[in-house]
Please model this.
Amino acid sequence: MLHLTKVAFGATSMNEVLGWWANRGPEARLTTRYRPKRADELIGGSLFWILKHQLVTRTEILGFEDAPAGKTNIVVSTAIVRVRPIPRRAHQGWRYLEGPDAPLDLGSHNGAGEMPPELVGELSALGLI
Model:
């Protein structure tokens, strides 16, 4: 499975990122200048968000559509899944992420899904989760 990464530009906290998706319906559109060359492989994959140099959440990529001025909309689900934070450098635009390199979801089975994001990041950095 192929995924994308994108910086949560302007966000200062996990709550702010989560707030972006509140009350938006089941899907949202993110406009990008260029359609990914591997767009067909990305449908069903995820868009992973980078916050404070870590991949922290993901949302499913539902498809791509043409947008005004020759741009492309990335259509994503607004259902946010928190993932085990892993370090990732900031970058402009989006980057591909191969399936084996994607972080695991934080599940309620280990309780990490309910922890504050900063604590999850610290525990992850220590290799404890």
